[in-house]
Structures are given as C-alpha cells and as structure tokens.
Amino acid sequence: MQPVIQLQDIRKVYHTGEVDVHAVRGVTLDISRGEFVALMGASGSGKSTMMNIIGCLDRPTGGSYLLDGLDVSQLNRDELADIRNQKIGFVFQGFNLLSRTSALENVELPMLYSRQRLAGPELRERALKALDTVGLGDRAGHKPNQLSGGQQQRVAIARALSNQPALLLADEPTGNLDTRTSAEIMGVFQKLNDQGITIVMVTHELDIAQYTRRMVVMRDGRVVSDTPVANRLHAETELRRLQEEQKAAQLTG
Predict the structure, then answer these.
(1) pTM above 0.90, yes or no
(2) Per-residue pLDDT tens for 15-50?
(3) CB neighbour list of residue 50: distance below 8 Å, 6 or more residues apart
(4) 3.30.465.10, 3.40.1010.10, 3.40.50.1000, 3.40.50.300: which CATH number matches 35-41+76-213+222-252?
C-alpha cells in the first residue's frame, strides 16, 4: 500500500540576516494509510516546521514530499492551497470557528471552496454526517458560544472531515482543554482512526501522544526516534478512570 506521506531527505533553511537557521535537517519518513502518529519534540526541535511542510503551509528547501502519491515539493502557492483544501483536514489548538454561524455552517465552509461545487442539499447532508461522526448531530444549529470547549473542538474536527481528506493533521488539539475533555477528544480521534482515517498529531505532551499508535520524536531538526506506542491509552478506559477519581474525591471532600 502506498504511504499517504513520503518524506525523503527533507530540509528547511531559514535565512535571517547573515545567519542560516537549519530548522529541518534531512528528515526521511513514511506514514502509511490508516496510521495514527504523534509528532513530538521540544520547542526548537523542528516539529512545527515539519507540521507546516506536511500541511503544505510551507515548502521545503530541499528533498521531496509526496502526499497521497502527489509530489507537492515544488507546487506554487495556489496549487498548495488546492491541495490543502482537497487532501488535508486541519484541527488546531484554537478552534477557529466563526462565532456568528451555526455548527452546521462552520462544517460546510471548507466545502464552499472545493472544486466539486456541491449543491446546497448535498453540502448540508455531508456536514450533518460529519457532525454525527463526532457525536454532535443534535447540536447542528448551535453557535460556538452555545457549545462547551470540547464540543467546539468536535465541530472543528467535523469541519476538517467535511472534504473527506486523505490526511487529518492536528496541531496541539487538546492544548486548550482540561484532562477529562482532552480524553474525550482523543476518543474521537481514536474512533476516526479505527475507521481508517490517517492522523498525524503534533504534540509536546507525552500523555496525549500515548493515545496514538506511533511516536516520532524530533530534536535539532532530525528524527531521533520512531517507535510504536508501547503502553497505549484507550480513551474509554481513561474516561472511566477519571470518573472514578472524581467520585472518590467528592466522597472524601
């Protein structure tokens, strides 16, 4: 099976005055269809630059990048925008929802910019299906200020799924959420991955990375380890544990 992501000797150099900053130094990495990968590293490790390259938000200085079989390394700005819309679903730490529009309309938004030009009923049907997938079909008419933080992130995930992308790219998706809500969101990602969706998640939190299936760790622009998750956390089990802890605290409090 052809990998969704094929990175070969990827390099990224930023020219700042008289100093060249080597943010990524010869990364070679394959991610197959259906994988759930955590991309980890401390500040300055190169993981954010790698996220931008994988997400077609930036171009590498050298090397090649094939996304779903297409060489995107040398595409121009407009071509990269098309690729982002068609092949990548983005989920960010900030939910980036339009405050005056409903959950349904927020999910429909990426499809309005798709080359498919879907008709209104089909837009609505696909958006409702995406909301159902993340467990928010009954909140389609609610605006963001009527939703909790976890529900807003679910809407953002549904929006990322609306164009049926080859890759779901999540950048610190639980960074604004408490522990219990983070476990709920990771449960959504685990269910999506179980359905065959390829997910790459950028995180610096080890406990969040343990919900994934594979951890790729970067340091100084290089991949220093690439290992399966040995002691994987399962969201449903973790939520039950958190609920039991909460009950015990209430009883002793």
Answers:
(1) yes
(2) 888 889 999 999 999 999 999 999 999 988 999 999
(3) 10, 24, 27, 39, 218
(4) 3.40.50.300
